[in-house]
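Final report, closing paragraph on structural work. Over the funding period we assembled a curated collection of sequence-structure pairs, and we close with a single example.
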Amino acid sequence: MDTTIQIDNKLRILGVSNNELREELTDHYLSEIEERITQGVSEEKAILQTLEQMKNDRLKKMNTAVYFLNHRRKLVFGNLCVLGLILISFYLSGSKKVQSPFQWPVETTYNTITFKFGMPGIINNAKKSHKGIDIRAKKGTPILTPTKAIVKETGTMPDRGLYIVLAHSNSYVTRYFHLSKILVEEGDVLESRQIIGHVGDSGKTTGPHLHYEVIKNDKHLDPITISKQITYN
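Its predicted structure, as stored:
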């Protein structure tokens, strides 16, 4: 059986029902297998070790958190946790209008797109389209929130390097990969144009740049179509 299918099936068994999360975790665990193989472990043993590791990674809890965030407006108002999310959503919204276009995530000095949205590429030995854009920038360049946000997730992965995921109003999510430094924590409430980290070259990359993604209702969008390039003061 194809390794990708094995990983995907295992994630389904472990209760990861969110398609976006399952796809990202599949890429992550494929990277884990590749790393074990480079350390001299046989392919068969590397797959078995990774499948065993998945049992201990608390994937059900992670999936529940993602589901809770994506469906917060549909939950019962009497629940205190939901009340907290409603207050956060009110803070983020500011008005009933969609806050679009988003502002550019780095200073306008850095407008060169080195890899466009939708371009084909090889990720973990599989041909996939590019889900975001790569913005050329010097290492240490500040990364800015495009609009008000809540920090949904921060961490590090072999392919992403240091990364940040932000949740915005109107079901928007933005993601930032290959950072050199993270300046925020999960759950932080952020204003527009707040510095969240610095551009770097961590993870799988050929040089310093910001990989930037915009997602709405689990669908990736071209950041160029909703981003406004402005000067950071």
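The first strand starts at residue 102 and ends at 103. The mean pLDDT is 77. We thank the funder for supporting this effort.
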